[in-house]
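FW: tagging you since you asked about this chain on Friday. Here's the raw sequence from the shared folder, copied in full. Didn't touch anything.
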Amino acid sequence: MIPTRRRTLLAFLLALSAGLSSCGGGGGGGDEAPDAGAPGGVGGEVVFSTVKATASGQVYTVQTFLPASYAAGSTRLPAIYVTEADAMYGANGQQSRFDAFKGVMQRRGTQAILVGIHGTARRNTDFLLPGAAHYLDFIAKDLAPQIERQYRADAAKRMLSGLSHGGYFVVAALVLEASAGTPSFSHYLSTEASFGGHGNTAGFLEFEKQLDASGRPAPATLFLAGAPGFNGTAVVDPLHAQMTAHAHAGLTLVKAQYATTHVGADLPAFEEALARFAP
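HL: got it, structure written out here
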């Protein structure tokens, strides 16, 4: 990791359009997430860096937000790993997913480290199988250990967040890891998950069954958020029902629905996740 410290008002490096999806992962139809609003609390620091994936050789830009209290503190903090940090989905496309999440954390005074991974342009490669397995290795084996060496990040309190194809990736990460061994994250935060590259929801549900077939425990929390009429109805509801019926040992399932749009569900879901898991 090659850190270059910047203050939070530094102009954003990338302005990539987030082709965020409805069910299958195509265009988002102009949906916008609501702005986080003017934060009630300010301060903190954003560090820009680059991290190379060992397996693929791909280099990712990473933004790390440290809350204002970090410099004077000594305790280890939860770390929230956010995919598509460079996705621009705020009002008039002027706010990135990372900045929107940072604003929520500042307003709430959340004591956690936010790690934003750029790569919206690679969403159809990194978030869907087979590429998702390599991307998961990058986050769990390259990025997270580096963050924990450099900052006071608690390895036992890692959270992984994704929207749409990113939401699919979060679920796939849990299924892949728990089927083979121990999950790398304590909390998996999936919003408006697509059915990924499985063709339809039935294919996604068939993929998820491997977790049940493995017979292994899944000691983690999966937060499934959605919007009725969008992927919340088409994907999240049937996925939650199937996983509830399987009653995976060690897995805590939480579901939430928001009366908004596909992309619009992202910020309220993140805020609820903070309230539940990082108060």
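FW: Helices lie at 97-108, 123-126, 131-150, 165-180, 201-214, 231-246, 266-277.
HL: agreed, and The first strand starts at residue 4 and ends at 6.
FW: great, closing this out.
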